[in-house]
């Protein structure tokens, strides 16, 4: 089994619990309330800024054009395309997307962002891929399963959100996993263990992020 196949297998339980989380099931049923959607979009906009920064730091650490292009493409995706997923949630919540940008991070989002940026600042390119790949991978898995299980039609309130994440044909995620396998093969067991820990921690933080939005988490003080 390849390194990335093992990672995916080790993350299956986290993925299952995340899929069953009431925020994700609320997307499936179309019954999340406006406050939850607004909280999610505010936090996700800020989170994705950090994702762009982490990938930018990966470009700064890259030594070849192929890696630079891989990171650049996924930065461009966040900048120019992923906003459509947020616009869907804003439409349902009855708010303007521009009004949800520039908010400070709540504890769970702050924790996830700090985890990614620490890996980006102190780690290798392989570490950065490991820490940032659960973001597209978990959403791809969730989106595809939502398409399979509920097969939404365009009248579903979260049709765009589900199709954006559940119907990606870019091959970007497979490319990242293939590169991670190459880098894992070239390094030490200790480095592979660190990559594994970064990946699985980010997977758990994907769960926390949905939970943060569902519970309207704020700083206690
Ligand atoms: C927290 C989080 N994880 C993953 C994605 C998918 O890019 C997202 N938009 N937000």
Automatic annotation (TrEMBL):
UniProt keyword list: Hydrolase, Thiamine biosynthesis
Entry GO terms, CC: cytosol
Organism domain of life: Bacteria
GO BP term, pick one: thiamine biosynthetic process
CDD domains linked to this entry: TenA_C_SaTenA-like (cd19360)
KW Transmembrane helix (keyword) present: no
Entry GO MF terms: thiaminase activity
Enzyme class: hydrolase
Keyword Hydrolase appears in the UniProt entry: yes
EC number: 3.5.99.2
Catalysed reactions listed for this entry: thiamine + H2O = 5-(2-hydroxyethyl)-4-methylthiazole + 4-amino-5-hydroxymethyl-2-methylpyrimidine + H(+); 4-amino-5-aminomethyl-2-methylpyrimidine + H2O = 4-amino-5-hydroxymethyl-2-methylpyrimidine + NH4(+)
Pathway of action: Cofactor biosynthesis; thiamine diphosphate biosynthesis
Domain Thiaminase-2/PQQC span(s) in chain numbering: 10-215
Pfam families: TENA_THI-4
Self-association and partners: Homotetramer.
Family: Belongs to the TenA family.
Protein function: Catalyzes an amino-pyrimidine hydrolysis reaction at the C5' of the pyrimidine moiety of thiamine compounds, a reaction that is part of a thiamine salvage pathway.
Record protein name field: Aminopyrimidine aminohydrolase
Organism in which the protein naturally occurs: Insulibacter thermoxylanivorax
């Amino acid at each position: 089994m390849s390194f990335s196949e093992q990672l995916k297998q080790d993350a299956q339980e986290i993925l299952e619990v995340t899929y069953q989380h009431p925020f994700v099931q609320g997307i499936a049923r179309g019954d999340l309330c406006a406050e939850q959607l607004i909280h999610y979009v505010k936090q996700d906009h800020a989170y994705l800024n950090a994702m762009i920064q982490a990938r930018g730091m990966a470009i700064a650490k890259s030594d070849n054009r192929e890696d630079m292009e891989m990171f650049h493409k996924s930065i461009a995706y966040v900048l120019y395309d992923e906003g459509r997923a947020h616009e869907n949630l804003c439409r349902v919540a009855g708010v303007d997307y521009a009004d949800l940008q520039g908010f400070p991070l709540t504890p769970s989002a702050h924790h996830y962002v700090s985890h990614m940026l620490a890996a980006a600042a102190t780690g290798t390119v392989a570490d950065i891929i490991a820490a940032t790949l659960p973001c597209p991978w978990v959403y791809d898995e969730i989106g595809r399963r939502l398409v399979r299980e509920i097969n939404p039609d365009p009248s579903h309130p979260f049709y765009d959100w589900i199709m954006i994440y559940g119907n990606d044909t870019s091959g970007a995620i497979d490319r990242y996993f293939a590169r991670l396998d190459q880098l894992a093969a070239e390094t030490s067991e200790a480095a592979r263990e660190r990559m594994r820990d970064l990946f699985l921690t980010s997977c758990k933080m994907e769960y926390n992020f949905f939970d943060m939005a569902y519970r309207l988490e704020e700083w206690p003080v």
